[in-house]
Amino acid sequence: MTPSALEKQLAAALESRQARHIQRSLPPSADIDLVDFSSNDYLSLSKSPELRDRFLEKLASTEQVLGSGGSRLLVNGSPHVDLENRLRAFFNRSDDPPISKPSPLPILATDALLFNSGFDANVGFFACVPQPADFIVYDEYIHASVHDGMRLSRARSIPFKHNSVEDLENVLLGLKGERPELSDGIGSVFIAVESLYSMDGTISPLPEIIQVAESAFPNNNAYISVDEAHSTGIYGPGGRGIVSMLGLQDRVFARLHTFGKALAGTGAVLLVSPLVKQYLINYARTLIYTTSLSYANIVSANCSFDFLESGRAEALSRHVLALSEHLTTTLADILHHSLTPITPDILSLPEYMQPSASSSPSLLQLPTPIVPLMTSYPRPLAARLRALGLNVRPITWPTVPKGKERVRICLHAKNSFEEVDLLVRYSMQWAAEVAVESSGLVSAKL
Ligand SMILES: Cc1ncc(COP(=O)(O)O)c(C=O)c1O
């Protein structure tokens, strides 16, 4: 049978991706036997016998476990409401560091609303909360879900350079010039950032971002939204995230915490004011038109938050961050002293992760569970490491900008220092081979 026009179009798109070496595919299912340097299960809670036992015990003693019966607007399960109340209390705990400045924001993120995923929360929020004629100013590395929300939004969106407070300030001042009424508090500007960026392991300079936003818009019409998908469970008191760690919870408009990464669950909670929560219940289509989290998911999330509240996650996250420091310092040192010169295109750490990065303390210097190994050859490096038993994934355009290809290393509570040493040794062996090969090619050409 001759292929239809649609089949031809789809096949051509895939062939084009294949020709450019950017075709995506599902990883082989045997990955489970490899050492995990790839998943977002940072605290290794998905493999915690203690958490698993607690979850199974709770499931066995809970009446409602299957399904949820429909959208939150159809069946508002009391376990969902109870979890929201719990999370509202958890994320507003008063043992966090003192608030750095009295809150200028009229609408504080003090209420909690569950979504089926972080993706749904971002799409739902950005599609409906910014109003027509508002602006969304976003970090250029913001997650795809925010992009999808912005596409559906009636507000105009403008990027600023990744983590650049200076560029953000320029964009905000430019907006004020373009729309003088913003200075009078008429209209709103939303600023979308992540606390920890998933592909780069960079931490957002939140205090400076907030300061720039507040001074550009002293009438408090700049609203900051912080996606804590990758920092939840790792940073801050009780794993409450980087906003809490910095005592900035009263200066942000919305905070997103997801359950699917360090918490080994499914779902997400958006912390917003009661007014914004009511608005989302009325307008967020990713909340209204979908079956809500199953009761079993709610039991699972509660068990993970029990774990955080017990304080046991803190030792795990300390271990993860110690592994991260070990990886960056060992690799930087070996690269520096390598007898075979390794050029940065073959293997390098990003500049901000090198020990000499900066002498003045900055958030960027905090260790993070995500360490990108920069290389122009991410697929061959990943293939070598996988063949040697280490599960890593190559990251290429369009997930990261062209020229910024990498192998993304994620560190976990279950990883050991010995495994990190193996990762460094195998990566260096591969890099030395590539360096020798390419220098041979160069001298052959000469
Ligand atoms: C920064 C960020 N935000 C949101 C999401 C979506 O969260 P979820 O996996 O719960 O849909 C992700 C997941 O990849 C993420 O990395």
TrEMBL record:
GO terms for molecular function: pyridoxal phosphate binding; transferase activity. Residues 33-424 form the Aminotransferase class I/classII large domain. It comes from the Eukaryota. Pfam families: Aminotran_1_2. Transmembrane segments: none annotated. Keywords: Pyridoxal phosphate, Transferase. The keyword Mitochondrion does not apply. GO terms for biological process: biotin biosynthetic process. InterPro entries: Aminotransferase_I/II_large (IPR004839), AON_synthase_class-II (IPR050087), PyrdxlP-dep_Trfase (IPR015424), PyrdxlP-dep_Trfase_major (IPR015421), PyrdxlP-dep_Trfase_small (IPR015422). Its cofactor is pyridoxal 5'-phosphate. Belongs to the class-II pyridoxal-phosphate-dependent aminotransferase family. BioF subfamily. PANTHER family: 8-AMINO-7-OXONONANOATE SYNTHASE, CLASS II AMINOTRANSFERASE/8-AMINO-7-OXONONANOATE SYNTHASE. This is PLP-dependent transferase.
